[in-house]
Every structure is written in structure tokens, then in C-alpha cells.
Design goal:
binds pyridoxine-5'-phosphate, alpha/beta, 8 strands, 11 helices, TIM Barrel, eight-stranded parallel β-barrel, single chain
Length: 243
């Protein structure tokens, strides 16, 4: 199971002073040196953290895989088609939200999503859809031609008791199995930290976990190299235990 590091919140700190540091580009280099498998960032319409300058530089320096999270707005689509990341992950976006709050409704927006998946794929860009662990959304993701889905793990991460944790975990396991059975590759992410990631690592068939906030928070104390290395070690350890 691979680890994608989301560096948005390095940029959040920089934007607090509209300054030059900390620089998400430096964070990407250190994360790769620490062993991550991809770099993820979200260019939001309101540019609250990642800026255009960042995505252009990241495209040049990322040596693993560059995964750009984005909403389907024409302004952002143009930038994505210009920089050509290795992958885009399509997410819903509301200006007032603190972070991405739910999965994409692939059923409701299927025609728009399908057209744009083709635009990206024609430019050599793989497409992942960030969705809830819901069979109907998985099926529609396959129908519109996505390469990957990313299962939203936020409800699992926020679950407040054992019963709810297992209920949400079970949905993620079932959605993973179903996606693989119909030929979709599976990533997962949102709200994962050094503790709750352990149960997710044991799920067979997930390609990659995309983790941001918990790693950037830990990096304040131990540095980003160490924070990424620790997460990578946990994933490897718990994945191995299940095999
Ligand atoms: N995956 C997607 C699609 C996201 O939108 C985010 C948050 O930007 C993440 C993963 C990472 O979530 P977190 O920062 O909570 O680890």
C-alpha cells in the first residue's frame, strides 16, 4: 500500500502571513526523500492554500507521482491541462467548507464528469474520483470511465464509538472489494492519522492512502522527513501483519 502525502497545509501556514515560507515545494522534496510514493495537493478556487506557482513548480520537481486534487471548474481544468499532473483527483468543493466534506456525486453530475475524464485521459492524465463507499457511486465511476476511485474515509475517521468505527470500516472494505471486482483501482483518504490508519492498512486491495493534515501537524514537532517516515513505517508494518 502506497503513501501519498498531501502538502496543502504547509501552504496554509505560509498563507497565514502571505509570505515565502514554509514552502510546499521544499516539503514535497523532503517527503519524497522520506519515502512517500506520491505528492498530492488541492488547488482550490479560492486559493486559500496552494497557489498556481506551487503547482507549476511541483510539476517540475516531483519525481514520484504528482496527484492534483481539484473541482470541475473551467479555470482549474485549464491549469490542470496545462501542467499535466500524472493524476487528477476530482473532488466536490464548497467555498465555505473547512475541508472537503463529502464525496463527489458521480450519479448527479455524470455527464459533466464523463466529458472531463475523457479530456484528461486524452492528455495522458489518469483520473480518480473521490467518492463515498457506496456501491451506486462505485458503479457510476466505472461507467464514466474513471481509472481510480478514492474512498472517502472521513466518516470512519470521525466515528465516535467502536460500533460506528466497525460499521464505517465495513463499508470501506465492501466498496473496495466491489470496485476491484468491476475493474476499478482503489485509493483511500481523508482524516487518517497515525492511529486510525492501522485498520485501513489491513484492507486488501487498496493501492494508495492519501494523507495530509496529521502528517503536517506531526511535522511541527519532529520535522516532515521524520513524520512521513513514521507514517510509511506504520503502513508497511500493519499491511505486513495482515499478509
Ligand atoms: N484525499 C482527498 C480527496 C482530500 O480532499 C483530502 C484533503 O485535502 C485528503 C485526501 C487528505 O485528507 P487529510 O488532510 O484529512 O489527511
Amino acid at each position: 500500500m502506497k503513501l501519498g502525502v498531501n502538502i496543502d497545509h504547509v501552504a496554509t501556514l505560509r498563507q497565514a502571513r502571505r509570505g515565502k515560507y514554509p514552502d510546499p515545494v521544499e516539503a514535497a522534496i523532503l517527503s519524497e526523500l522520506a519515502g512517500c510514493d506520491s505528492i498530492v495537493c488541492h488547488l482550490r478556487e479560492d486559493r486559500r492554500h496552494i497557489q498556481e506557482r506551487d503547482v507549476y513548480l511541483l510539476r517540475k520537481i516531483v519525481k514520484t507521482k504528482f496527484n492534483l486534487e481539484m473541482a470541475l471548474s473551467e479555470d482549474i481544468i485549464k491549469i490542470a491541462l496545462d501542467i499535466k499532473p500524472d493524476q487528477v483527483t476530482l473532488v466536490p468543493e464548497k467555498r465555505e467548507e473547512l475541508t472537503t466534506e463529502g464525496g463527489l456525486d458521480v450519479i448527479k453530475f455524470s455527464e459533466k464528469i464523463k466529458e472531463n475524464i475523457k479530456r484528461f485521459q486524452d492528455n495522458g492524465i489518469k483520473v480518480s474520483l473521490f467518492i463515498e463507499p457506496d456501491f451506486a457511486q462505485v458503479e457510476e465511476s466505472k461507467r464514466v470511465g474513471a481509472d481510480f476511485i478514492e474512498i472517502h474515509t472521513g466518516r470512519y475517521a470521525d466515528a465516535e464509538n467502536e460500533e460506528k468505527i466497525y460499521e464505517e470500516l465495513n463499508k470501506i472494505i465492501k466498496a473496495t472489494e466491489y470496485s476491484i471486482s468491476i475493474g476499478l483501482r482503489v485509493n483511500a483518504g481523508h482524516g487518517l492519522d497515525y492511529k486510525n490508519v492501522k485498520k485501513i492498512c489491513k484492507i486488501k486491495g487498496i493501492d494508495e492512502l492519501n494523507i495530509g493534515y496529521s502528517i503536517i501537524c506531526r511535522s511541527i514537532y519532529v520535522g516532515i522527513y521524520q513524520a512521513v517516515k513514521e507514517m510509511k513505517e506504520i503502513i508497511e508494518k500493519y499491511e505486513r501483519e495482515n499478509n
